[in-house]
Protein 1
Amino acid sequence: MKRTFPLIGLSIAFLVTAGLSAVAQPAADSAISATRVFGKVTEINTSAGTLTVKTEAGSVVAVTTNEKTTFQRMPPGETDRSKAEPTSLTEIAAGDGIYALGYVAADRKSVPAQKIYVVSQSEISKRNAAQRMAWARGAKGIVSAINPAAKEITVTSRSLTGASQAVTVAVADNAKLRRYPPDSIPKYENAKTAKFEEIKVGDQLNARGEKNAEGTHLAAEEVLFGTFKVAGGTVTAIDPAANTITINDLQTKKPMTIMLKPETVVRRFQPMMGGMGGGAGAPGGGGAPGAGAPGQGAGNGQGQAAANRPAGAGPGAGGGQGPGAGGPRPGGGMNMADLLERLPTISITELKVGDMIIMSTLPGSDPTKTTAISMVAGVEPLLQMIAARQAAGGQPRPQNVDLNSNFGGMFGGIGP
């Protein structure tokens, strides 16, 4: 019979990359029960046969082994224990996730392990890097047209050169479709299985798969989408204690309160040397601005949204916490959302009154409040550039920039 982890145990890989669900009190730490402990390895003493494990809730447990302890290595993301392969204590490294089975002491501070399942952090990193690149080579932007009969979606975006980029995404019956719930910060593991009919014009969408030679058609293997909005404005007040900022909305000219969640990724735009036009060294030419890691979630936003994603978080990124480097796209340079996901992350304390920001948001019933998914500060030069191009000799007006069409796809959360 096929053996799998009990549901309460979750996937080891998920525990390592996405964190453990636990309450604050060690006695109620859900990562510890009478017969098992799971968490990350912080210390190893191979000569003594001991491991120090720390759960996401902060509990520290001493795991002891002996000659009867068996060790099994799980592939990243796998939950079927029959897929595990034999390993040894000497092959475990700090940062690896382990699931130790044994009778836990009454004080929950030690366990003599009978069996240990381990997932390598380095293997997780390799897998995530490969998946980031797969998403980066895909398509992202705003759904501009849908062909139900052919099961095709047209996704449009713009490069820094201003060129409109359109990719036709073909969705085969075996493709995975996942939708981000409209009332939560998009995280890859929270995306729900969806149907083609749920995709609507105006949705933000990321797809991974194989493109044709011209880069205009993609056979989708997986599609992530959600109903998000790109908004912007000038920061007028910052409240680090409440994790909120107030902006003067770019379009409405009215105050708006922005809530930043722990998963919110905040970045700062840094104009590159050589201008922002699209020549050599400019963003439009495919250069990599800033020092941020490519991709969906993961910066650490506000000390936030760290580590589990392809840093730079999407197809993202958030990253994914998304994918990062996608290279030039058809139609005149790098996709705007791809470029922004490469920028370095900052904390809310690094935001300044007067900063102009753009952000992907969760639309709500109250137009004066919204939650930021992914935010980029210091974008006034970028908006001025786009506005000047649109003005065609007239006066550039950043408030006239269509944020959704220019920055569609920056909702983060891509990639496990």
Note: Helices lie at 12-18, 121-136, 336-341, 380-391, 403-407.
Protein 2
Amino acid sequence: MSRDPERTWAAHETPTPLEPAVPVRTGPPWTVVVVMSSVILVWGAAFSGIKVLLETLSPGGLTAGRLVISAIVFTVMLPFLGSGKPRREPGDLWRLVVIGLTGAAGYHLAINWGEQYISAGVASLVVATMPVMVAVLAATVLKERLGRTGVLGVLVALAGVTLLVLGSEGGLQARSVIGVLVTLLAPACWAVYTTVSKPLSARYDGVRLNLLGAWLGAVIVLPLGFGDVSRLGSLDGRGWFWLLYLGIFSSAVSYVAYVWALQRWTASGVASFVYLVPVSSLVWAWLLLGEVPAPLSLVGGGAVIAGVILVQRR
């Protein structure tokens, strides 16, 4: 019996189960790169605002004001969401509480309080440990792997941040060991926030994921800001601009964008963009304050960018 050539060709072309159904991606979607680059620009400018506001407000008052504003923004955004309510599963409530305690109250209070006792350089270096913490937690909890290229990228980025800090004004100065330890709580809190948010981002949008946490964080921190109520009247136009900027853009809008990126890329990959925050701060200080970066800082900034590229292409 002769064999049907068309059927023979079709059988030959049918992919085996071992062949991938879709191409393997070697980097994040370009939309994630664009969105996270915008987030980094917003967060980089926030450090200037924190410095300005701490001249008038206490760390507790600054954190409370920022969280109250962000919680109001999340609440206003909620009715405009087109998607339906997320599918709730057992354990979601306590995860949302953890997100609020870490990403809202814990992170902001730690970094605002710690910057009273350490230089901006030390703060940048401490915060730059966050992607490493996320990589460890993601490997343990989410079973993500960086690979050799990713690990090399993490090391290059950390070395770049160190060079950037050493070349910055103020350098590595700390008046209190406790200040360093408290600041270290900030990246630890954000690492937990990222790791817990990653699986929830498959069912929750950025607003619903952060809404409960923002109000919970505001309620927790609000007693620390009661003493600053009278100081709000002392804020000038620049002070109010930065307070609104931190609450609306640096907290609410950026948090929604961060969760959006987590929905489309790995937790460790998204977190690695945070290495660029010191670079963004350097650029904003150069443009807004006229602080010309030292050559060593420029070298460090280049190394940070190279490290982030390596992590994304692991």
Note: The chain is about 70% helix and 0% strand.
Protein 3
Amino acid sequence: MLSKLKFIDPDTELNIEDIPDEIIANTYKYQVTDKAERILQNIIKFSSEFSLNVWEERLESIPLSNISEMYILASIVEKETALKREKPIIAGVFFNRIKSKMRLQSDPTVEFSLTRGEKKLNRKLYRKDLKFISEFNTYINHGLPPSIICFPGIDSLIAVSKPYRSDYKYFVSKNLRGEHFFSTNYKEHLENIRAAKNAK
């Protein structure tokens, strides 16, 4: 939960406002005696060095201008799927939408718009939610949100830097394992939605 994230020790309290967006969600080693500032500095250092390397090795064809944009899209991919093998495919879908001047239409950005990342929505999205006015809602706004919607992991950053090349523009969850159907056009997408409903 972005706005509630805190690193606490007896001497200091660091709020999310003190923490940059460009942080990688990962497992970090530290000692129980390490102060919050040192832990945070190590996380920032790793994140900065790793993401710079990922950015420098990215496919030059991806339509992103900087590392910040890479983090924003990676945060959306992070929320869309937990499956490592699907992350590059979903990243590729979003790039195809960008190139086609489509909206990203990502459900997690709507959820973030409704909760501001302070809590889980704990319900399915309603059709009316897709029209919720927010600069983070990619159903009503073109392009990327203004900032991350979560801290992305390594796999999501790499997926965005080296997306799977396809003609896919749509995807829908097909089972409780988190797998998705992918399609190239809206007609196929509707068929996949029906198949997903029948499978559940």
Note: The first helix runs from residue 36 to 56.
